[in-house]
Amino acid sequence: MHTIERRQAIVEQVRRRGVASLRELAAAVDASEVTVRRDVRALEQEGIVDRRRGGAAWPGGLTHEQTYQQKTRVAADEKSAIADVAVGLVEEGDAIVLGAGTTTREVARRLAGFSDLTVVTNSILVAQDLARSSVEVVVTGGSLRGSTFALVGSAAEASLQGVRVRLAFLSGNGLTAVRGLSTPNAQVASVDRAIVAAAQEVVVLADHTKLGVETMMQTVPSESIAHLITDDQADEDELEQLRRLGIEVHVAHLDGAPAADDEE
């Protein structure tokens, strides 16, 4: 296992367990404790995990949020597979909103080949990825939130008033059947609510690391979510609760198999 793959596996183990010993991590990634200790130290320096005596812990708290760069290292393959499924919901002639986030950016990269599409976004990175394409890009106003390259604040919310699109794609930081989609940041939550109000249907993009997780600010209540696109590592019990609420669940497979959609 290469260093990058091993560290991604360590991150996933710590996220799932909350706290993991060096021995447990070494067994999980088939490496020595010395190697894992070095990996944990590197991951702590990047702010992804907290180092504990004899192991590592997942940074906790309802207000904790990783930086954009840290998020790109979590469930990267799953986010790519989710984006492949998400783009299948978009049609030529559509008008959509893409919120800020690592998964929505993956979707944007796949939309560059469209010839008749309008994308409204509050993400500087999404706009950048679509800048040289034939897609018409409408960027909201707002104040730049440097940690996520997102435009937030009253100007961003005001620019979304009066906008009407068919689909809005949002990712957030946590998703549960009880609270819906949530984020640790109040400004982000306010903009996401404005995005929801502009769309006929809301599509949530949430890899398995976000399911069952709650953060401080609710952005989209479960009853307002039309589609959830997740990956095949998602907890089935959590998915079943979301299905019972009428959410259409699409499961992206890392092996490239067609997405498993709920039957009507």
- The secondary-structure class comes to alpha/beta
Report the radius of gyration as a whole number of Å.
18 Å
Order of helices and strands: HEHHEEHHEHEHEEEHEEEHEEEHEE
| Strand residue content | 15-25%
Task: Give the number of helices.
Answer: 10
Tell the overall outline.
globular
Q: What is the CATH class designation of the largest domain?
A: Alpha Beta
Give the strand order of the largest sheet, numbering strands 1, 2, ... along the chain. 6-5-4-9-12-14-15-16
Total beta strands: 16
Termini distance? Answer: 41 Å
Biggest beta sheet summary: 8 strands, mixed
Average pLDDT score: 89
Into how many domains do the coordinates divide? 2
Q: Percent helix among the residues?
A: 25-40%
CATH topology of the largest domain: Rossmann fold
**Any idea what the CATH architecture of the largest domain is?**
3-Layer(aba) Sandwich
Stretches where pLDDT is under 50 for at least 5 consecutive residues are none
What does this protein structure show overall?
With 264 residues, the protein is of the alpha/beta class. The protein folds into two domains: 3-60, Orthogonal Bundle (Arc Repressor Mutant, subunit A); 70-261, 3-Layer(aba) Sandwich (Rossmann fold), CATH 3.40.50.1360. It has ten helices and 16 strands. An eight-stranded mixed beta sheet has the order 6-5-4-9-12-14-15-16, sandwiched between helices. The mean pLDDT is 89. This is DeoR family transcriptional regulator. It holds the Pfam family HTH_DeoR. InterPro entries: Carb_Metab_HTH_regulators (IPR050313), DeoR-like_C (IPR014036), DeoR_HTH (IPR001034), NagB/RpiA_transferase-like (IPR037171), Tscrpt_reg_HTH_DeoR_CS (IPR018356), WH-like_DNA-bd_sf (IPR036388), WH_DNA-bd_sf (IPR036390). It comes from Luteimicrobium subarcticum. Residues 3-58 form the HTH deoR-type domain.
